[in-house]
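Bug #77: duplicate submission created two jobs. Keeping one. Sequence:
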Amino acid sequence: MKAVPKPDKLLKPVRSLVLLAAGVILSTLGVGLIARAIDPDRFVRSLATLDWRWVIAALAGIGLSYVAREQRWAILLQPLVFRRAALWRALLTGQLLNLLLPIRIGDVVRSILVGREPNGSFARVFGSVLIEKAWDWLMLCLLIVIVAWAVPLPDWFLLPARSIGLVALLVLIGFSAVALTPEDRITRGVAWLDRVLARWPPRWHTFILTNLHRLLDSLGALRHQQAIIGAASWSLIIWSLGVISNYAVLRAYGVDNWIAATALLVVLMIGVSLPPSIAGVGVYEGLTMLTLQFFGLPLETALAIGITLHLVVAAPLIIGTAWSWLIMSQRGRAVAELVDL
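Kept job's structure:
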């Protein structure tokens, strides 16, 4: 008699299809609304003013930001050490999946990829990713404060900004709790859980405790001053490069405004991550138009900036991911040939 699939397993593909359909609909609506809002002739004239030197500078900034992300992740993974090629492949693959798919599974996928490496584990790696995301939320909150101080913000910006501030506060509380909790209390807590789970089947008992220990190991990075300083420094560099890249794209169209570049980064980081869309198409450009209109830019120029910035963000990621997988496959074939010899 065949086993009947569990309801949750049957619902997973359904949820994925629903999110995918929602992403297609949202992107289509975004593109349609944008097409109705702009003057095609003005848009073409805006594109004609593009200065490619600034686009190259923006591409360099995006590339350096991924270098900084890899450096930060390596710090958060300590004392575990992985091959840099493996970290690069996992990081770029995860970022690309988050960009392309409405089902944001990129961070889980990269944790799985590195977790399969020698001495790796999913729980340990995923814990480092959670800490990384926490640092990003804190940096995002800092940029919100800077923008709010520099210019009066509209209501549609302030509402999510307050929510981000609350999340950042909770992150700070969590960081402080982990950093200040004495080791002996954590040890006693784990021992108590061990006694509670003693009645469970040995398989579940071992699985839960093993992964809990690995997760606690990843949170141990919050207890070391060098790790905190390193993660904070690289986070500041990452987000500074994001602002610089946005500014370079604005300059490519003759716009010289650092606050607009910063505000645009904040809005895009919040907006693109929330609604399901296909590669952010329509949503990315619409948010750019909404933000830059607040700074007095014509819709057609804002749309040109949004499309250019979208391509600047996506192109290095697609090329870098493809290159990393190609290199790994070539190395795999070389190893197989050596084994055959």
